[in-house]
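Same chain as my last thread, 573 residues:
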Amino acid sequence: MNNGTEEVVPDGVAVSLENPFTAAPDEAEPAGRYEATLRRGAALREKPFMAAGSPNRLRQHLKGRMTVWERIRYLADDTPHVLYQNWGPNLDGASLVTAILSVDGRDVAVYGHDFTVRAGSMDATNGKKLARLFELAAKRRIPLVGLNDSAGAYIPAGVGGLDGYADAFTALRKISGIVPSIMCMFGFNAGGGSYLPRQGSFLIQPKDTFFGLTGPGVVKSVLGEDITPDELGGPMVHSQTGVTDFVVEDEVAALRKVKELLRYLPDSNESLAPYRETSDPIDRRTVDVDILLKKAFNSPTGFNTPFDISIMIQQLCDHGDFLETQADRARNTITALGRMGGNVVGFVANNSAVASGQIDIDAAYKNARFIRFCNLYNIPVIFLEDTTGFLPGREQEHRGIVQAGRAMLDAIVDLRTPRFLVLVRNAFGGAYASYNNYATGADFVVALPTTRVAVMGPAGVEYVYKDELKKIRANRDARIQSESEARVAQGLSAAEAGKEAALAVDALIKAEEASLVQRYEREIMNPEEALSLGSISEIVMPEDLRQVLARQMAFCLRHYQPGPMQSVQREFH
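reply #2:
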């Protein structure tokens, strides 16, 4: 304890227990009715900050958590404009703070649960406060940030707690697609405290936190299953399902991620993302892309060599800096925000380093969600295609890959922002047809010399050259018999001659089949036909990729005006 104003937590870090945004009180005793009125007003102003008392704030610190005011102070450039400082004689509404902050010079609407007051629980008053904040954000076209730390509905409030959540759910859904929102999860959240933040554009979850529709206790009582909070609703669970977009180390890292993400986001669906001057020239040669492809294609596995597409994204972005979303989910596809020539750009890329870059259900939904976000908030998208197609199999069909693929295709067709397609290597069948080509609305389609584009991959040789293959395979027995007789004539036993003849004929058949595969790749699986038909605009050398894309993107953005949506759209399908 330090003069009654500071407490020291076990790790030795001093934390303030006072309102960080108020000046020291005037020591002079007020006199008169007017002064008494002012004193009462000052007490009302301080009530939301101080009503929980020092013990509750200390408990929050001992759990390794900031108070809501400390979180706000970390985000804010200066003193925040707090809205609705208190409601009701029983602190109705005081367990939730709503405010307008300046974050890196931008106005941002912020709400935060005060866990030191009734465990941040929700009542009807909280719901109204949240709804008004959401409406204000949409009306003034400013981003929204949520600092979630709530035990759920306030049980003594009865149905009012549920009404509060319903008000908030409805209001937040109505502004989806109007302003972007970033949600942070702190502490232990359950019930409606899970639904609300997942309505946001992005969700950030630190380690050692939990959120879920039910807690471990309910699971135990209903199902008889013992499960830890981390196993039920920890960050490793939610990051795999796509519920959580970013997993970070702690609360400070979460707040830093909020600031980082805001730098890529526009204020609303009527504006562009912030432009930033860059010292990285747009005509910088992407030499490492050339090296990457050279090593991959000259390896023994050739066209089948997997490589990490994030290296290419890094090379395209200003100073190699980009922000990947849902990095732990569906690694066979990568979605990321970056900049080229100072302009914010979204990337959707097949990653052959994982499952050959095939598109499965999780990848399709991951892509669809990111594309819809970019569409709503005027972020151009570059697609990097390198996939052998959609993942086949019983499990995928039974889980609804057709529906997932349709969600991705619909998002691409609806995309109104400038959008490019780079054919990196494999582009086959339905994957090509549904992956942002000219027919689905692409503004610019290019191919690297390494591109293979066709209705089918190497397996297509069985259909294109089926007559030739039939002849090669049809006379196998006769060829073995002839080769065997020749070897017997040379003095080998019948058994030895038969064995050698079979090996020789099979090797010859394999070589003839390989020759047809090479012919298939040379005549059909190449970008020449696509170039001649206008399916692609040009062949781009790997070293020139950033220059070509950045210049074309700058041109498109100079002439881009947010147009009408093809239909009413929200951030989630």
